[in-house]
Amino acid sequence: MKTYRLIAFASSLALLAGCFSVDTATCTSTGDEHVVVSNYGWTLFNCIPLCCGNATKREDRFGPWAFLRNDVTMEKLQNRFMDYAKARGRELDCLTYHKYETVLFNIPFTQIPVPLPYIICFRELQLSGVVK
């Protein structure tokens, strides 16, 4: 029974873990690319990182998630954005960001959602711009 609980706990951590992504769209007329770099994760009491997307370079990654480490920072997103542009020998233009944080976590599978403030918090950062 304990192994099933451990497997369920590990599976839920993997499902609720953060996600780091680099998404692109190319404008066929100019050849410019619109790039969106985003990462999100979960924290305990809004300050202790639990899990998030792994923002390190692909060749240095151990896995897609980072546990007990905060990779949801503007510095890490900017570094990955700059690395993307530098690898293509292009310049950045029109950078903008979006930050989303919430301190309420609803207990799932309940008839009436019960919010738990400041226990498990969600944080997401997105950085977007044009690579010319």
Characterize the structure shown.
- The protein is of the alpha+beta class and 132 residues long.
- It is 22% helix and 46% strand.
- It contains two helices and six strands.
- The protein has helices at 2-16, 74-87; strands at residues 19-26, 33-44, 48-53, 65-67, 92-106, 115-131.
- Strands 1, 2, 3, 4, 5 and 6 form a six-stranded antiparallel beta sheet that branches.
- Strand 5 and strand 6 (115-131) form a beta hairpin.
Structural class designation:
alpha+beta
Beta-strand share of residues:
over 45%
Contiguous helical run count = 2
Mean pLDDT: 84
Q: SSE string, helix = H, strand = E? A: HEEEEHEE
Radius of gyration, in angstroms, nearest whole number = 18 Å
- Could you give the distance between the termini? 56 Å
Give the helix level as a range of percent: 10-25%
Q: Count the E strands.
A: 6
User: Biggest sheet, in brief?
Assistant: 6 strands, antiparallel
Shape: elongated
Low-confidence stretches: none
Can you give me a brief rundown of this structure?
With 132 residues, the chain is α+β, with helices and mostly antiparallel strands.
Set down the secondary structure blueprint.
Elements: H1 2-16, E1 19-26, E2 33-44, E3 48-53, E4 65-67, H2 74-87, E5 92-106, E6 115-131
Please describe the structure with a list of short key phrases separated by commas or semicolons:
single chain; about 130 residues; alpha+beta; six-stranded antiparallel β-sheet; 2 helices; 6 strands
